[in-house]
Amino acid sequence: MQPLTYFDSIILGITEGLTEFLPVSSTGHLTIAEKLLGLSVDDKAITAYTAIIQLGAIAATVLYFFKDIVRLLAAWFRGLRSAQERTHHDYQLAWAVIVGSIPVGVVGFLGKDAIKGGLRSLWVVAAALIMWSAVMWVAERRHTVLERSGVQRGEGQVTMRDGLVIGLAQCFSLIPGVSRSGATISAGLINGLDRVTATRLSFFMAIPALTAAGLYEAKDVKVSVTGLGQMSVGIVVAFLVAYATIAWLLRFVAHHPITTFVWYRVALGLVLFVVLGAGWLSAT
Question: Would you say residue 267 has pLDDT above 70?
């Protein structure tokens, strides 16, 4: 195939930065974008490229939450040395992020062939967009009930069990169309966390998950296909757009339900079914 152009890199970078943290599925949108750009979605070099530019989104997350990350790491190291420090909520939150990051790594490694192969189909994306929307709807309904009852928990009450539950849910995001943030935020809401806490925890868990994915896929990058310049552009664009998206989403979820995104997901899924059924676009 022809090398990626700088236009391709900009479009993919915008798509990654805009959709990585919104509950609409970055992988699904990247797959759609790749098809519209005429790229091969099952080419390992292209798959690796989209994983690499995720590092731009991760850099945005680290920069935005830098003080929080330093605080959690410091609490974690202090807790390893002191029993009294292990009672601090930051120590518990740090462990929740660590424990929650393990399942997706294990499942992603064991299922890497299916993830890069059969699941990279727009039929799968369309179905997952619609089906996971039902989970998001249930999660928001659960959130409303708990909020009215006054029994929701904030960041200071996050437990290791929360991390494990959210981490297991994060495994579903390996299916294109589900959405990593959609899976983790939904799990947090169902598990009794308030919307802002669930969203922040989703961001924290994104750092190890996406960093590991990007570094692992680096081995499949072909400079002859992606180009160093194009890769750099994709990472920078993803960083800038992701940083703005993070800031916007945190303000948005403080006052709006995640079901706002359900309508978009369902509409996009239905449009994809029509387009694929009519033969206007190939699934792979």
Answer: yes
